[in-house]
Amino acid sequence: GREGKFLTSRMIRDRLFKELDRNVALRVEETDSADKYAVSGRGQLHLTVLIETMRREGFELEVGPPVVIYRTNEETGKVEEPFEMVEVRVPEEYSGSVIDLFNTRSGELQDMGLDDGGESMSVIKYLIPTRGMLGLRSSLLTATRGTAIIDAVFDSYREKIPGDIQSRDKGSLLAFEDGTITSFGLENAQDRGKLFVKAGDETYKNMIVGIHQRPGDLAVNVCKTKQLTNMRSATKGITVGITAPIDMSLDACVEYIATDEILEVTPTKFRMAKNPDMLGKKGKK
After folding, report:
1. 133, CA 20 to 30 Å: which among 72, 183, 233, 253?
2. For residues 30 and 37, is the Cβ–Cβ distance under 8 A?
3. Whole-angstrom Cα distance, residue 136 to residue 168?
4. Torsion over CA: 219, 225, 228, 234 (sign)
5. Could you count the other beta carbons within 10 Å of the beta carbon of residue 148?
């Protein structure tokens, strides 16, 4: 509530319903909670454009991870989910990495071959649930070093695949306490994974400050300060460089967050954190 002008749920509600007048593909529904709204649109890009517009207007809001819209087949009574046909053009040496990524997300290989052009490019076609496509683009570009050309188009609604689809294989680094991030704290934290924050940033407990190098979340004390004494330290001459943080865009943040995480959007910053409503439930299971 420090950076934006429009903070209350009433203001956010009025702005969302005002958007419906000109954004015909958008749907806004009220939920059981008075300060939560279910916003549906034509895919992730459509919704992130709305979030970015509201952010620039001075709104502060929290966003949950994107979910697909299920429907029930009237004839069979079974729950169905949307599937997409995805075509990826990629250099041959990266085709194995691409196939691995699709297989872990319940993709079904439809066709594979070489491009007719002169360059040695593989063309891979997959039928994959839209659930599996959430966050896949950034993973594909990372695995292929930015060389993949991805085309995706809606195919049809099919019977829902049981169980969850693995979206990411690494956990998050969480802030241990409220405070200001110090370079001394970052020195110790950067050995645990890649960081999103830099020294001088404000943080709060359970805010996501980086990507853990292993599965599962880890709390790190990035606000730790060096003990000042008049004793000479044995490690005084050793200086450790701090790695530059990953600059996360709005799209990257929306793709990154898991089901128990939220994205806090303010006019100046994007912050990710564990969803406080789900922390207690997860511990009880």
Report:
1. 72
2. yes
3. 9
4. positive
5. 20
Distance CA 119, CA 144 (A): 16
Give me the residue label for tokens 């997300």.
105
CA distance 73 to 156: 12
Residue 83, pLDDT score? 92
CA 89 to chain centre: 24
DSSP result, 213-241: SSSS-EEE-TT------SSPPTTTT---P
> How confident is residue 284, by pLDDT bands cut at 50, 70 and 90?
very low
Lowest model confidence (mean pLDDT) among 171-175, 185-189, 196-200, 231-235 = 231-235
Predicted TM-score (pTM) of this structure:
0.81
**pLDDT tens readout for residues 203-237:** 989 999 999 988 888 899 988 887 777 776 666 65
Torsion over CA: 33, 255, 173, 208 (sign): negative
CA–CA separation, 37 and 29 (whole Å): 6
CB burial of 95-113 (b: ≥16 within 10 Å; e: otherwise) equals bebbbebbeebbbeeeeee
